[in-house]
């Protein structure tokens, strides 16, 4: 049976809830004959989040790893394409650290591509009626930090593992506190994660179709 590690973050930036963790822990209740899901919480903290992620990877030895984070202001289920080797925090993390223009991994490559079949995932999500898009930036806060740390660990120690990062919108109750911002229902997010996992497991070669943008 395949094992899927899915992580979410604790609340940050003044919010009292993080949709990533709410979705991930709900997802862990999903049962399937061909795979099992293990959910783990990551702190919205530089460095500590990567250390914990590496620990989870060693303990669980997953076949697929999805890290999930909140992207307030986005309207779609966003599958990230690339992680970049930079920390440039606009706000402090949950322990007050605010690294600016520092590398995630000293002497690491500039970036890493996801190893998820992102275009197949987006295609399947849209077939299921879930608003979805490929994203070409995971930001420069803890989400990108963890994404880069994940892909670096896969490149160095876990070749063959499929891994990547998903950004999700606010939940409706959060959007109510952020007037004008889009949201997505928790059930829709969880269904999107199930589609992502099952497409990643079933796809050996990604689709070749338009997934970019002009600006």
UniProtKB/TrEMBL annotation:
<dbReference type="InterPro" id="IPR000816">
    <property type="entry name" value="Peptidase_C15"/>
</dbReference>
<feature type="active site">
    <location>
        <position position="167"/>
    </location>
</feature>
<dbReference type="Pfam" id="PF01470">
    <property type="entry name" value="Peptidase_C15"/>
</dbReference>
<dbReference type="InterPro" id="IPR036440">
    <property type="entry name" value="Peptidase_C15-like_sf"/>
</dbReference>
<feature type="active site">
    <location>
        <position position="143"/>
    </location>
</feature>
<dbReference type="GO" id="GO:0016920">
    <property type="term" value="F:pyroglutamyl-peptidase activity"/>
</dbReference>
<comment type="similarity">
    <text>Belongs to the peptidase C15 family.</text>
</comment>
<dbReference type="InterPro" id="IPR033694">
    <property type="entry name" value="PGPEP1_Cys_AS"/>
</dbReference>
<comment type="subunit">
    <text>Homotetramer.</text>
</comment>
<keyword id="KW-0645">Protease</keyword>
<protein>
    <recommendedName>
        <fullName>Pyrrolidone-carboxylate peptidase</fullName>
        <ecNumber>3.4.19.3</ecNumber>
    </recommendedName>
</protein>
<dbReference type="InterPro" id="IPR029762">
    <property type="entry name" value="PGP-I_bact-type"/>
</dbReference>
<keyword id="KW-0378">Hydrolase</keyword>
<keyword id="KW-0788">Thiol protease</keyword>
<comment type="function">
    <text>Removes 5-oxoproline from various penultimate amino acid residues except L-proline.</text>
</comment>
<feature type="active site">
    <location>
        <position position="80"/>
    </location>
</feature>
<dbReference type="InterPro" id="IPR016125">
    <property type="entry name" value="Peptidase_C15-like"/>
</dbReference>
<keyword id="KW-0963">Cytoplasm</keyword>
